[in-house]
């Protein structure tokens, strides 16, 4: 009698134990979800939907979500031009924090300016943790020039011209900083001090100001990989080297300082040198114009290496 009870008990324990193990195993086998962030002239489920579909076909059961700014697609579109990036980062952090499917961490893919916005999310909102950050043509040292804007519709061109006019009025004036997205990562090498003092977004996340924010560095160093993709035939991002965190030498707009000779790297106030020396800073180049990559490349160089 006692024996049968104990056998039943043992079976029961085994049953729950195996459930637990299975639960653990299936949890481990669940692919890491992906969060995407769109760029200027696009929306959360606009042209980048192609990438969501590729990920879903390459990685069974993957959860892929895309951050939408505002309450609808129109607000989301306009948010690429007009708005305060610090507010956009806070609300994206909240969306990520409240998404039950992202609680064990996620990989992220930023398209164009979505790249630097996701980096701000990694630096400011470490929970849940971002694992790999893939920046496709992100402007990590900002832009100095808006030769033309991505997405060639009348609506895009209208907003793009508006942005140019505001920047011409004075990129670093507080009202424009709070309102014009591209002004918030406008980096004028002839006004380096003004940029450092007044840029509400880029100079802050690049930790340009004293005292340096140690948590920005600590949080960026939590990344498994920081993958920066540069498009070598850029006609949209000026300078294209910004996509690898490089920028003009202060005081002129011709000579680019190589990343490993730049103060942000040598003095390492953001963790780039440490990421590089531990093999986690991946600098990739594509021989094409802004965001012009094919799916063969994307599958081989991004999905297989960082997202599987
Ligand atoms: C560093 O950044 C975080 C996130 O933005 C902020 O909460 C914190 O106050 C900053 N710390 C310092 C010393 O500025
Ligand atoms: C775009 O603007 C051009 C020139 O102003 C105009 O001729 C054209 O009809 C517009 N297209 C749309 C789709 O509104
Ligand atoms: C895809 O892109 C890669 C990298 O830019 C390039 O080397 C390759 O030739 C392209 N393949 C096709 C089929 O276009």
Secondary-structure-based class equals alpha/beta
Mean pLDDT across the residues is 92
End-to-end distance, in Å?
A: 52 Å
CATH hierarchy class name:
Alpha Beta
Write the H/E string, N to C: HEHEHHEHEHHHHHHEEEHHEH
Q: What is the helix content?
A: 40-55%
How many domain units?
1
Unreliable sequence segments: 9-26
Q: How much of the polypeptide forms β-strand, as a percent range? A: 5-15%
Q: How many DSSP E strands?
A: 8
Supply the number of helical segments. 14
| Distinct bound molecules | 2-acetamido-2-deoxy-beta-D-glucopyranose
- What would you give as the CATH superfamily? Alpha/Beta hydrolase fold, catalytic domain
Name the strands of the widest sheet in spatial order: 2-1-3-4-5-8
Query: Main beta sheet: strand number and arrangement?
Result: 6 strands, parallel
CATH architecture label: 3-Layer(aba) Sandwich
Radius of gyration: 22 Å
CATH domain fold name: Rossmann fold
Q: Tell me, what's the shape?
A: globular
Protein name: Palmitoyl-protein thioesterase 1
InterPro entries: AB_hydrolase_fold, Palm_thioest
Keywords: Disulfide bond, Glycoprotein, Hydrolase, Signal
EC number: 3.1.2.22
Features:
308 residues, Rossmann fold, six-stranded parallel beta sheet, two-stranded antiparallel sheet, globular
